[in-house]
């Protein structure tokens, strides 16, 4: 088992700095800071419960409380806004780092970002020339997504931001004949639309996947990702194979390498499909 006090050693920290990344996961902060001679400006803590109703906002546990609660995280030279005063979700998920990198590697022409949140996948795609279609229930998250585009000097004129229920939007896009060569499915474990309709990832991910496959162009790429503890990679693969069979499509599967700063079995579970 890896020594947690050296979860990010000095060499790995230098690798992050060299690639333009300052957002990563740390453990055993006191011993780590001593080993790599790093000084913190502020430290926020957030309790991660098993039940959504027990969620709490991030709390400042070290640093000047008078400072602005907003900051900017940098990942491979792209900038993303972080707001520790925005409640439970501060605006940026570090565990999707390699999936955002893959989006840049794929360099799609048209990306559909479902449950787009603050549009980090879309910023990554737009950076390499894609147009994006961003769907999320929250208008506030969509606004923060536009801010992330602006942080990276990316115009939004060729990008759409739709504040609506993904499960209603996907069939509508299919009827309109829309096709995308990259689709991001990274839903929350639970959400509820303004009309009161609930989304449960364990029950609804299968239908979401089939509807998304209908929008996938030839030779497209589709990401399945979730933080639900009962849907690990194997469960996602079983679901994907059933969805592909239902949609009569073929695909190859790709799993991202483990993140060097995350303990085994933590972070989002993810599978990429390369559809034919």
Give a short overview.
The protein is α/β, with parallel strands linked by helices and 276 residues long. The chain is 31% helix and 25% strand.
Describe the protein in words.
With about 280 residues, this protein is of the alpha/beta class. The protein has 2 domains: about 5-65, no CATH class; about 95-275, 3-Layer(aba) Sandwich (Rossmann fold), CATH 3.40.50.150. The protein is built from 8 helices and 13 strands. It has helices at about 10-20, 30-35, 95-105, 120-125, 140-150, 165-175, 200-215, 235-245, and strands spanning about 45, 60, 70-75, 80-85, 110-115, 130-135, 160-165, 180-185, 190, 200, 215-225, 250-255, 270-275. α3 (about 95-105) runs parallel beside α4 (about 120-125) and α7 crosses α8.
Main sheet makeup:
7 strands, mixed
**What order do the SSEs take from the amino end to the carboxyl end, as H and E?**
HHEEEEHEHEHEHEEEHEHEE
Low-pLDDT segments, ≥5 res: 1-5
Overall pLDDT level:
89
CATH fold title of the largest domain? Rossmann fold
The end-to-end distance, rounded to whole angstroms, is 40 Å
Determine and state the CATH class of the largest domain.
Alpha Beta
Q: Which range does the strand content fall in?
A: 15-25%
- The helix-and-strand class reads alpha/beta
Task: Tell me the total number of β-strands.
Answer: 13
């Amino acid at each position: 088992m890896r020594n947690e006090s050296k979860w990010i050693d000095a060499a790995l920290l230098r690798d992050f700095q060299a690639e333009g990344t300052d957002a990563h996961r740390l453990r055993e902060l006191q011993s780590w800071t001593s080993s790599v001679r790093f000084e913190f400006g502020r430290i926020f803590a957030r309790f991660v419960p098993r039940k959504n109703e027990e969620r709490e906002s991030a709390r400042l546990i070290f640093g000047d409380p008078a400072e602005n609660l907003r900051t900017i995280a940098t990942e491979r030279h792209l900038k993303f806004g972080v707001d520790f005063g925005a409640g439970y979700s501060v605006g940026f998920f570090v565990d999707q780092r390699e999936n955002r990198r893959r989006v840049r590697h794929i360099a799609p022409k048209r990306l559909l970002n479902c449950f787009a949140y603050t549009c980090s996948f879309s910023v990554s795609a737009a950076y390499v020339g894609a147009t994006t279609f961003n769907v999320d229930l929250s208008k506030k998250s969509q606004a923060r997504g536009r801010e992330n585009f602006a942080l990276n000097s990316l115009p939004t004129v060729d990008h759409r931001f739709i504040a609506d229920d993904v499960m209603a939007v996907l069939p509508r896009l299919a009827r309109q004949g829309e096709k995308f060569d990259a689709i991001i499915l990274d839903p929350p474990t639970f959400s509820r639309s303004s009309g009161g309709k609930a989304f449960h990832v364990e029950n609804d991910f299968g239908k979401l996947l089939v509807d998304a496959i209908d929008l996938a162009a030839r030779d497209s790429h589709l990401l399945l990702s979730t933080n639900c503890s009962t849907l690990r990679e194997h469960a996602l693969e079983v679901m994907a194979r059933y969805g592909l069979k239902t949609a009569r499509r073929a695909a190859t599967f790709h799993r991202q390498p483990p993140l060097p700063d995350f303990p085994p079995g933590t972070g989002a579970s993810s599978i990429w499909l390369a559809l034919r």
